Amino acid sequence: MKKGTVKFFNDDKGFGFIIDEETKQEYFVHVTGCTEEIREGDDVEYELTEGRKGLNAINVKRV
Q1: Phi-psi map region of 33: left, alpha, beta (phi>0 left; psi -120 to 50 alpha)
Q2: pLDDT at residue number 16
Q3: How far is residue 37's CA from residue 53's CA, in Å, rounded to a whole number?
Q4: How is residue 36 annotated by DSSP?
Q5: Contact at 8 Å (CB) between 18 and 26?
């Protein structure tokens, strides 16, 4: 599992972005890819999968 921090998350629209701890790259995350509720600033673990516009974070959970 990769580790990162939630940079932005919009509860109303159900999406946001995670910054990877090591590479500092941003990954899109949708509420359907979360195993629990996340908020801006949360430290999370996640996996990556190929989406329509690049890599998306899935199986996202707080640590």
Answers
A1: alpha
A2: 98
A3: 24
A4: S
A5: yes
Burial of 29 (0-12, 13-18, 19+ CB in 10 A): buried
Residues in CB range of 31: below 8 A, 6 or more apart? 14, 15
SS3 33: helix
CA-based nearest residue to 63, from 41, 44, 49, 39:
44
Amino acid at position 14, single letter: G
Does this model's pTM top 0.90? My answer is yes
pLDDT of the residue at 33:
97
6-45 confidence digits (pLDDT tens) = 999 999 999 999 999 999 999 999 999 999 999 999 999 9
3-state DSSP of 7-21:
EEEECCCCEEEEEEC
